[in-house]
């Protein structure tokens, strides 16, 4: 499994020295479905690279509502930058949706890279920023119907792996609205 992680790092422009540094502090972990990696309100001690499976992060309200923040699947980094930078509790929950194999790295490693303005940190930050900008554009510029259509086009594998409730939460709509959108698309 570490070979796959090492190859992903190479493919993403990490040099052999950076890869060695990452592997020195990395730990391989396997998790069952619905395992909580980070509770909302807990301070993160790890960041993750997802080798196999799917994870989900969500904001939970006092009124029992859940708002989907993000889904993560193979070859995704899972990092809570807000918690890292402010050194505070996570504003969201992180859980596995399927059995998962992840590489875990101590958050202190990332903090050290941040202080040194290390190239690894900058690469991770840039990747996260691009994801955030794409998600923002997705949510602001498109109607719910267009978001569903784009989601299906860009993530056909996820459409098969997620249930309608999860897809609706990611799209920022209710599952009832998603059901209506799907019915209109079929006619």
Automatic annotation (TrEMBL):
Xref: InterPro entries: cNMP-bd_dom, cNMP-bd_dom_sf, RmlC-like_jellyroll
Family annotation (Pfam families): cNMP_binding
SUPFAM superfamilies: cAMP-binding domain-like
Domain Cyclic nucleotide-binding: 10-53
Descriptive protein name: Crp/Fnr family transcriptional regulator
């Amino acid at each position: 499994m570490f070979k796959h992680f090492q190859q992903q790092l190479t493919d993403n422009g990490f040099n052999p020295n950076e890869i060695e540094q990452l592997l020195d502090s990395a730990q391989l972990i396997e998790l069952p479905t619905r395992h909580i990696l980070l509770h909302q309100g807990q301070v993160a001690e790890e960041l993750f690279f997802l080798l196999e499976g799917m994870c989900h992060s969500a904001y939970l309200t006092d009124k029992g509502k859940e708002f989907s923040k993000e889904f993560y699947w193979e070859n995704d980094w899972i990092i809570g930058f807000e918690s890292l930078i402010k050194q505070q509790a996570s504003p969201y929950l992180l859980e596995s949706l399927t059995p998962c194999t992840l590489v875990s790295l101590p958050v202190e490693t990332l903090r050290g890279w941040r202080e040194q303005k290390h190239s690894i940190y900058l690469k991770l930050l840039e990747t996260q920023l691009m994801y955030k900008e794409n998600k923002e554009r997705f949510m602001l510029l498109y109607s719910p119907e267009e978001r569903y259509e784009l989601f299906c086009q860009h993530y056909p594998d996820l459409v098969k792996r997620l249930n309608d409730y999860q897809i609706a939460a990611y799209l920022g709509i209710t599952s009832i609205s998603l059901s209506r959108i799907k019915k209109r698309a079929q006619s």
